[in-house]
Amino acid sequence: MNVLIRADSSSSIGTGHLMRCLTLADGFRETETSVAFVCRELPGNINDMVVKRGYRLLVVPTGRDLPPSGGGRQSQSSPLEKDFREYDALHTRAVIASEGKFDWLIVDHYGLDERWERAMRDRAVHIMVIDDLARNHDCDLLLDQNYHENQETLYAALTPPYCRLLLGPTHALLRPEFAEARKNIRERDGIIRRILIFMGGADQHNVTEIALGAIRIVGRADITVDVVVGAANPHGERIEAACRSLLNCTCHHRVGDMAELMGAADLAIGAPGSTTWERCCLGLPTLFVATAANEVDLGRQTDNLGIGKFLGICHEASSEMLAKELKAALESPLTVREWGSKATLLVDGGGVDRVCRAIHQLSVAEVAS
Fold first, then answer.
1. Which pairing describes strands 56-60 and 34-40: parallel, antiparallel, or unpaired?
2. 106 shares its domain with 213
3. Looking at the structure, do residues 225 and 100 belong to the same domain, yes or no?
4. Which helix (H) or strand (E) holds 117?
5. Can you give the pLDDT at residue 65?
6. Which residues are paired to 195 by β-bridges?
7. If we measure between CA atoms, which residue out of 127, 129, 58 comes closest to residue 97?
């Protein structure tokens, strides 16, 4: 089976799209599957990880770029986005012209939608989309690993009638280390002794430093703090300096043991992005701050799910506000414990296997027909 994956990463886009696609690609390793990636060389990208993981990397020229919204719902039909879609489809076709027809084209990109997918139809037998913005798609398989109250009907009018839907966090694309760490998950008592701060791969607005300001205000020297700086984070030096000014605070770069850090923490301060499901898999309660507009919906759902508390989008956040919420959590161990217990019920770490099985089943059905 030949698979082509289209995803990008950068300081503005973040790294979540490409990271979860790499996780899915790793899930094919036990089968006879050839995987190639098509990416742009954007500032702060992590394309080197594609090559280090043993996959071929094909590069699309960066002559057109997305508007500041990054492909969010409110600007889908803007001229800039239309221009980007057409440019990207043209140049993606150009870089894969000699590759032949793929069995699967997998796309994970807020800037690309059904019009791009339709333009790529003759380049792949099947198209799979990974998305969470509830947009129109022309695909055979759609994965939305986020939780939506109306998820059973959400995509009914947005996808072809033959499209198979994989919906909800049971399909979350988590690395094997999380399922393994879950086997030894500890029962938390709600008392906060260790805090993990990770605002995603980019954290363009430096919410990490706001969180560290809250730690300083709370002033609990008996609490250990781990801070993870993502691969595309442009504020690394500032964050390191802030960590050095605090007691019992360690700054981590290019972390290879995120599951271990999450398992050791009693509370996280993080964004409601794809890392949400990693924390849930290990029962880690969270204070959520959205780092982009497309994270707000999931942030609100985290309140409904009872897995933590959503504090709003980064532009509304302050160290003082976050310190107030952190103090409330410190004084409410029963609530914090309940957040973690509910989180554990949502994700079991088996999402990659489920998605790979669905892809295989559709491939077999195509051969049989």
1. parallel
2. no
3. no
4. helix 114-119
5. 65
6. 225, 267
7. 58
Same domain, 150 and 288: no
Q: Please give the model's pTM, rounded to 2 decimal places.
A: 0.91
Q: What is the pLDDT of residue 76?
A: 47
Structure tokens at 230: 């993502």
pLDDT of 41 over the 70 cut: yes
Q: Is the dihedral of CA 123, 154, 340, 253 positive or negative?
A: positive
**One domain, residues 131 and 257:** no
Same domain, 169 and 183: no
Number of domains in the chain: 2
- Report the CATH number that the domain containing residue 24 is assigned in CATH: 3.40.50.11190
Alpha carbon of residue 202 to chain centroid: 11
CB proximity list for 81: less than 8 A, separation 6 or greater: 66, 67, 71, 75, 111
Mean pLDDT value across residues 330-357: 97
- C-beta of residue 278 within 8 angstroms of C-beta of residue 174: yes
Please report how the helices 236-244 and 207-218 are oriented relative to each other, as an axis angle in degrees rounded to 10.
10
Give the Cα separation of 74 and 29 in Å (integer): 38
Q: Domain range spanning residue 26? A: 2-174+350-368
355 in the same domain as 340:
no
Neighbours of 111 (CB within 10 A): 22
pLDDT confidence of residue 368: 62
Q: Are 195 and 265 in contact (CB under 8 A)?
A: yes
> Which pLDDT tens digit goes with each residue over 267-318?
999 999 999 999 999 999 999 999 999 899 999 999 999 999 999 999 999 9
Mark whether 74 and 106 lie in a shared domain. yes
Burial class (CB in 10 A: 0-12, 13-18, 19+), 173: buried
**Which is nearest to 99 in space by CA: 115, 122, 129?**
122
Same domain, 26 and 105: yes
CATH label of the domain that carries residue 238: 3.40.50.2000
Mean pLDDT of all residues in 19-34: 94
Distance, in Å, from the CA atom of 165 to the CA atom of 37, rounded to the nearest integer, reads 23
